[in-house]
User: Fold this.
Amino acid sequence: MLLVKYFLWLIFYSFVGWVYESTVCSIAQRRFVNRGFLNGPVCPVYGFGALAVIVAFYGRTTNPVWLFFGGMILCTIIEYLTAVLLETLFHAKWWDYSNRRFNFQGRVCLLGAVVFAVLTVAVVDGLHPLVDKATERIPNGLLVALACILLAVILTDLTVTVHGLLGMNSRLREIQQAINDYMAPHRQKAEAVRRELLARFEESRFYNDQLRLITALKNRQARRMMRAFPRMYSVRYREAWDHLKQKLRENRPHHS
Assistant:
């Protein structure tokens, strides 16, 4: 039953993290933002971070100093590993802290580490004792049934998300190849000239009917990711990604 409880806590804190992230980003962008890797209302990085500090500290210490710095280290490591994993699997950076002071490789930063530390103290000392007691009141059979349902939902969401991202990468690869062919004679020119040439890419013979269909942005996953993570960009297909983002901005009034 312990693994079942851990899984349910993982999902619960992933939801809490999604509420926090979506609220902060929605306020900043002045519109609702479904902030998360998955389509559903969960941010797994928060769930894994919360579960890690619960396993490491809950019932073992109430010292706020230990919780603060222990949570800072654990959660920062998890955020860093998550960034590396996403970049490796999907060749894209979901977030980039390069413009913030005291960052490491743009994947983690001091401000984020401090936020994680504060959240660790709040979770271990404040929220989780209530969650733990509430979980204990639920019959084991109901806990197992709930865990099975949530697992099925998460796996379905993960499948849809990964399929959409792989489709997006396939689209980006074709666009990038056309851009590379178009820019091949101009690679040695000044950056300003190259930017001007890229702006006229759609007027070239390389922008054929097939590419027009590819850049139609019918991939819902691509649109959602671009809106949820404004700083997101493709590591392999940077110019193609910029082109897709531009098309998204142009098409925004026509999409719900």
Summary: The radius of gyration is 22 Å.
